[in-house]
Structures are given as C-alpha cells and as structure tokens.
Amino acid sequence: MFNYKYLLQVFCFGIILVVQKTMQNTTLCTFPPGFKFGTATSAYQIEGAWNVSGKTPSIWDFATHNNFESIIDRSNGDIACDSYNQIDVDIANLQLLNVSFYRFSISWTRLLPNAGNNFINPDGVRYYNEVIDKLIAHNIDPMVTIFHWDLPQSLQDLGGWTNKLTIEYYLQFARTCFSLFGDRVKTWITFNEISMYCVSAYDKKSLAPFASLSGIGTYLCAHYMLLAHGRAYRIYKKDFIHQKGIVGLSIDSPWYFPATNTANDKMAAMRAIITGFDWLTHPIFSQTGDYPLFMRKRIDYNSKQQGFKESRLPRFTTKEKAILQGSADFLGLNHYTSKLASMPMSEKASEMTSYEIDRSFDISFDPKWPKSARNHFKVVPQGLRKLLLYIRDTYNNPIVYITENGYAGDHSEYIDDHDRVSYTNLYLTEILKAIVIDKCNVTKYTSWSFMDNFEWHDGYTLRFGMFHVDFDDPKRKRTPKKSMYAYRNIIRFGTLPRCLSFEKSI
Ligand code: BGC
Predict the structure, then answer these.
(1) Beta carbons within 10 angstroms of residue 501's beta carbon
(2) pLDDT by residue (tens digit) across 22-56?
(3) Residues enclosing ligand 1, CB less than 6 A?
(4) 238: Cβ–Cβ under 8 A, 6 or more apart, which residues?
(5) How far apart are CA 49 and CA 464, in angstroms?
(6) Sorting pLDDT into bands at 50, 70 and 90, what band is 505?
C-alpha cells in the first residue's frame, strides 16, 4: 500500500530545507547588528617626519638609510604619506569611508625618543592627542597598536628583541601610552605580528633589523615579545582597569591546505599551523598554556642533535605561563592568503639552525588560485573560513577581530582596483559564513590598508590602499579608488554587495 505518511514526511522535510536555505541566503547577506568595520595603517608606513621635533631613529629609519639595498626600490619612510602633517586630510578621508574605527600605531621614538620614559616628547604627545581627539570628534573609535615593528634603534644596538631588557623598555612605553591616551583609547593591540617580525628579521632577513641568528634569534625574539605582551596586559588590568578598555594582540597566519589527501600532507598542514600560528596563540588562548607540545619536542630534539646544551626554544617559568594564559580580551587576526603544505621527501634536519628546518614541510600553491601583485599572496577566501573554524575549535571560540586583510596591487595601480573590490567581497563572504553558519565569534573587520603606503622591504612597489597616494607629489595627494566606494557601501548597509541591487551595476 502506498505510504502517505512517508510522503508527507518527505514533503515537510523538503519545505524545511527550502525555508532554511532562503533564510540562510538572506542572513548570508547582512552582518549581525553590532558588527564593526574599520581600516588600518601603521606609524612608520604613513607618518614620515622621521626626524622632526625630537623624534629619534627607529630600526626602520636606520635600515632604510644604512642598508638601503635591502629595500627593493631603495626607498624609505622619511616622508611616506606625510600623515604627520596631514591629520585633517586623513580624518576627512576616514569619514568619507564611513568606518567605525581606525587602527593606527604609535611611533615609539616619537613619543619616547630615549626609548625609556625618562623623557616624554611633548610633540609626540601633541601629535597623537590630536589624532585621537579628531577621530573621536568624528565618531571614529581609535584602535591603537602599541608596537608595529618600529623599535628604537638605540634598543636594537643592545640586541633589540633578543635582549630581555627590551621587555622593560617596552613596558615603560606601553604604560606611557595607557596613561596618556587611555582615557580615550579603549582598544589596545600590544603587538603587531610577532611571528612575521621575528621570522623575517632573524630567519629570512627580509625585515628590519635584518639580523642573523636564524632558528635562535627567531625564538628568543618571539619569547620576549610574548612575555612583554603578557605583562603589559596584566599592567593594564591592574593599574588602568578604570579606563574600561580591552587589550589584545594581532597574530598573523595564512591557512595551510594539505597539498594532497594523503595522511602525510595532512600532517604537514597541521605542522605548518602549529609552528606558525599556535606557536603564539597556544601560550595565551589554550587551556594548558605554554608552547605547543609538538614544537617543544621537535625543537628540543633538533637542538640536542645539533649539540646545544639547552633547547633553542626558550622555556617559560610557571609564573610566566600563568601571566600569559588568558592575557587577551580578543584575538586579533591578520590574514591575507593560504598555502599548500606537503611533507618533504625526507625529514629536514641539518647542522644549520633554522626555523624553516624546524617546521619541516614544503610549500606550494594551487595554480588555480588567482594571483595578486605579491607573489605568495594568492586569493583564497575559503582559507580564512577554515582558519576561523580552527580558532573556534582549538581555543573555545574566542572573540576574534580581523585586524588586517587586504589585496596587493602593483605600483602602477591607480583608482580602478577591481581586483581589490572582488577580494574584499569574497573574503567578507567567507567571514559571514563563519559567523552565521559556523557561529564563530568574529565581531570586527579591518581592511588593510586605508591608503597606499611604505610597504616595508617592498618599498613603494606594492599598493594595498583604498586611497591612491601619489608619491611623486610633494603633497602626497590622496585619491579614492573604486574599493573605497565599494567598502563604504558595505559599511553603510552592513550588507554584501551581491545583495544590494544597485551594486550589481558597479
Ligand atoms: C603588516 C603590515 C603590512 C601588510 C601587507 C602585514 O604583515 O602588519 O604592516 O603592510 O602585512 O604586507
């Protein structure tokens, strides 16, 4: 006999699926209420005015002036976007963009020319007060990065981030920032990209201080930065809690897909995430604290093989572990791209100490992934969703702010930056899926960058901005690009462009 009950069940199930799909399509258009959009820069990349009114050299001033062949176009940030002299223009452009917050960093040597707090430079205080006050007057929340790579050269002369003493100087700097600006700044990022800084400085020699000591300096540098972060967090919670702000840090990571479906390549992808991302997140966000066990074992073993009495990966004391554990109110994530990881033919081991050898996997790229002007920055939006899922599952779904995400154009790019518009749409779509479908706790998105700027060792050969900057013009004229208008619409409506009928024509 024909089973009507069964037919009815199938019919109802079908209806539920259609309703769910329709709901998902509409919710996959609009960001949840309270979701905030912003944009970002950093001091050395935009300010210029490298030696005015008492400012002393940072490692970037030193490197670009003395070691200029390490910068592709031999340029520097002496003038950069001239933002030191153009606060009003910048604020007007931020207002045009309609962002809720602006992430920028404080130049350590503009505020504390002696690195320590025995002298606070009045001009530094004036400049940052002006920026902060004007932002607030225009309803834009300041989100401040305390350290975005421009270490005082005087501290580098003492070993920089491989010298434990730098922690004490950093804490003086952080404390000065909290006490001068904390009445108005409510979101603090202690460090920008510890791993990018330490690996590029000590292993790859591609960022200042362009030092050696690979596989040794790299771990020391990250270790001391982590400790400085943890202690700055505790200082804020003890002495500045009345300011009612929040403190976190920005950690960079690509996503790694296994190059093939083999167990080996899956293991290689896991290695890549553990040794690149968990290296810095595990001590802060995990239940157990400390470095990931895999790193501990592997670097201890390699160090022993190489004849070291102590592991090249430093150890935290019990007290330090406790300081670090839970020392962030949010996880700032800087993400640009994904890579493929595969297991090498034989385990990489050598007498040479190197972070890359310790990690031991090979990198490649899927030829189908669209390119950008930076060779290894492919457009792989689905990788961001995977990374967000990984964070949710590994660290008990912490609050995540995307503190950087953006597209690299080349130096000839002017205002028709369609690829950047499409990149942003694709990445935001994946973020929305992570929020709506996967229930990841992402509450802020920051587009890198507000305007074209000094792109570290790539000088001015790459452009990340939503405003074009004419670096041949002494006034550094800014012109909005297509991406500025597109991002502004997303912010205005809190909605992805494919869901706005009028956007389809753009
Ligand atoms: C850094 C930025 C940089 C961007 C694009 C990030 O690693 O924090 O300062 O401009 O990547 O390369």
Answers:
(1) 7
(2) 555 567 999 999 999 999 999 999 999 999 999 99
(3) 42, 45, 192-193, 196, 252, 334, 404, 448, 455, 464
(4) none
(5) 22
(6) very low
Number of Cβ within 10 Å of residue 368's Cβ equals: 7
Question: How many Å lie between the centroid of ligand 1 and the Cα of residue 251?
Answer: 11
Single pTM value for the model: 0.95
CA atoms within 13 A on the CB side of 159: 14
The string of pLDDT tens digits covering residues 85-129 is 999 999 999 999 999 999 999 999 999 999 999 999 999 999 999
Round to whole Å and give the CA distance between 271 and 281: 14
Which pLDDT band holds residue 67 (cuts at 50, 70, 90)?
confident
Residue 264, sorted as left (phi over 0), alpha (psi -120 to 50) or beta, turns out to be alpha
Question: pLDDT tens across 371-391, in order?
Answer: 999 999 999 999 999 999 999
Look at strands 141-147 and 467-469 and give their pairing: unpaired
- Where helices occur in 278-354 by DSSP H, the ranges are 279-285, 293-305, 318-324
Give nearest CA residue, ligand 1 atom 9.
42
Would you please indicate which residues are annotated as catalytic (active-site) residues?
193, 404
- Range of lowest pLDDT (133-137, 228-232, 345-349, 414-418): 345-349
Return d(Cα 304, Cα 404) in angstroms, integer: 38
In angstroms, the Cα distances linking 436 to 384, 403, 429, 449 are 14, 20, 10, 26
Probe target for ligand 1 pocket from 39, 448, 455, 463, with the most ligand atoms within 8 Å of CB: 448
At residue 144's C-alpha, the angle toward residues 161 and 177, to 5°, is 70
Q: How far is the CA of 427 from the centre of ligand 1 (A)?
A: 17
CA dihedral 238, 242, 245, 249 (to 10 degrees): -10
Pocket test for ligand 1, best of 404, 405, 407, 447 (most atoms within 8 A of CB): 404
